[in-house]
Each structure stands twice: as structure tokens, then as C-alpha cells.
Design brief:
This protein is α+β, with helices and mostly antiparallel strands. It is 30% helix and 27% strand.
């Protein structure tokens, strides 16, 4: 009898949305990069990456938000991350990658960076290469300022231009609703439009034990890119107003450079109920509900 080929082993990883619970612009470097202070968290809402052994590197993209990717070809950030890891480790192995794209593109929630971070971890496991955490984050930093944070994959204080990461205490149980008015908003354009004074860092301790306590702490902080983002995409103000009026909302804010905004709730159920109401009111928006990942992230 002919030998039966064994099925290929597939590795799968979740690539969660990154949320800036607050974001302060505290300075600017001589060459133009802004200095940030932010508390980031990750939601259990995101994309998914699958990798199988193959002779060469390839990427297939599907999912509800696949059409939003401008570049489905060789310059996709996931493939760039794969090539970077292969070159860095000297492996000649390939992989067939599949990206299930559920997060909107250029939306201020780190979707592309989280995808690339998940791909790096997947391929390190698939190719059985030895690479330390700091080495992997340093490698990822070459692909974008959000990559190290997404490789870290859990609540953290972020500073510098986004590359400096310090552990934050575990977050309380919190429900979250993400909403985007279907408007892409490039990060560079928002930073370029920002004006006004710089703000002080907003770090706090201890971490509140409840969702209500966390929301109260965040109320005295903000997102310093909101005004610039609204100037480019006025619909953001409508999203924030709509989120602020939802039943049970604790706080509503823009994430990152926009245009995605978020609302926090006491639990996942309240966030899901709010999503149901929002979909009825704004059927053309992208929205998703879930919870914040309290401890170690799902992409790490």
C-alpha cells in the first residue's frame, strides 16, 4: 500500500486589538517624532493568523475586513515580518500563512502590528527557532513602533515613540465596545495635524480593582490626538457622542490616532447589549463588543 502523507501541522494565534486607554503627547524629538505616555490594553476582539509548513512563504487573506487592506501582496506587514524573522534566524523554511481579517484597517487599534506580532510568534514556533523575548521585540521594532507592544501583548505603560514598554498591573474585569465610522485615518496625518502644548505623563497607582474605578481614574486623562483626528474625520465626534449616550457606559474615548473609539462598561454583557443598540442606530459602522484581557495577552 502507498504511504499516507501525514497532515500538515497548523499553528494558530489570535491577534487582539490594541486600545489606548489614555494617550498623552508629552514632547517631541528634534527630528519630528512625538514622545508619548499611554496605558495600553488588549481586547479579546481581533484577527487570527494560521501558519502551516510550506516550501516558500505565502499569504492568503480572508475575513470580513479583508477588502480594507490596500496591499494584499508582497509588502503586507505579515509577510514582511515573516521574511525578517527568516533572515534574522537564517532559516530556509517557508510557511503558508492565512490572515482572517476582522479588524478595520488604519483604525487606531494596532491591527496590522498585532497581526505581524502574531505571525512572528507563530513562525518562531513553526520553524522551531530560538529567539528571546527582548530579541524578538527588537526585531519587531524595525517594522513599526507598535510591534514591541503587540509582542508584549498585555496591559502596559508605553513611552518614548511607543517602543518603551513597562508592565502595568492586571486590569479589572471590563467590558468594551469598539466602534469605527468606516473611515481610514493614517497615523502620520493625525500627528502632523496635532498642535498645542504638551501634557504631563498620566501614570497612576494602584490599579483600580473595578471597572468603575478604572473609568474614574481615566476621566482625568485623555487622548491628545482626538482634536486633530476630528479635524480630519469629523465623524469621530459623532461616534463619541453616540457611545457616550449608550446605557451603562462608564467612559467613551478615541483609541490611538483614530478613527476607532471605545466605550467601557462594567462587564462584557453590558458591552454586548450596548453593541446591539448601536448596530440598530448606526448599521453602517463597524463595531464589536468583548472584554479587556486582564492578564497575559493572547498574542504572547
Amino acid at each position: 500500500m502507498p504511504a499516507v502523507a501525514e497532515p500538515a501541522i497548523a499553528f494558530t494565534a489570535f491577534a487582539p486589538a490594541k486600545v489606548n486607554l489614555y494617550l498623552h503627547v508629552i514632547g517631541r524629538r528634534p527630528y519630528g517624532y512625538h514622545l508619548l505616555d499611554s496605558l495600553i490594553a488588549f481586547a479579546d476582539i481581533g484577527d487570527r493568523i494560521t501558519a502551516e509548513p510550506a516550501a516558500t512563504l505565502s499569504l492568503e487573506i480572508g475575513g470580513l475586513e479583508a477588502a480594507g487592506l490596500v496591499d494584499l501582496g508582497q509588502n503586507n506587514l505579515v509577510l514582511r515580518a515573516a521574511r525578517l524573522l527568516a533572515d534574522h534566524t537564517g532559516t530556509a523554511r517557508g510557511a503558508a500563512l492565512y490572515l482572517e481579517k476582522n479588524l478595520p484597517v488604519a483604525a487606531g487599534i494596532g491591527g496590522g502590528s498585532s497581526d505581524a506580532a502574531a505571525a512572528l510568534r507563530l513562525l518562531a514556533a513553526l520553524w522551531q527557532v530560538t529567539i528571546g523575548e527582548e530579541e524578538l521585540r527588537g526585531l519587531g521594532a524595525g517594522l513599526g513602533a507598535d510591534l514591541p507592544a503587540c509582542l508584549y501583548g498585555r496591559a502596559a505603560w508605553v513611552s518614548g515613540i511607543g517602543e518603551r514598554i513597562e508592565p502595568a498591573p492586571d486590569l479589572p474585569e471590563v467590558g468594551i465596545l469598539l466602534a469605527n465610522p468606516r473611515k481610514n485615518l493614517p497615523t502620520g496625518a493625525v500627528f502632523g495635524a496635532r498642535s498645542g502644548p504638551f501634557r504631563e505623563a498620566g501614570r497612576f497607582a494602584p490599579m483600580p480593582k473595578t471597572a468603575i474605578g478604572l473609568a474614574r481614574m481615566l476621566m482625568s486623562r485623555g487622548n491628545d490626538l482626538t482634536g486633530a483626528a476630528i479635524g480630519l474625520v469629523p465623524e469621530i465626534s459623532t461616534v463619541l457622542a453616540r457611545l457616550s449616550r449608550l446605557p451603562g457606559v462608564l467612559i467613551a474615548r478615541m483609541s490611538g490616532s483614530g478613527a476607532t473609539c471605545f466605550a467601557l462598561f462594567s462587564n462584557r454583557g453590558a458591552a454586548e447589549d450596548a453593541r446591539t443598540a448601536l448596530v440598530v442606530a448606526e448599521p453602517d459602522w463597524w463595531c464589536a463588543a468583548g472584554g479587556l484581557i486582564a492578564g497575559k495577552g493572547l498574542c504572547g
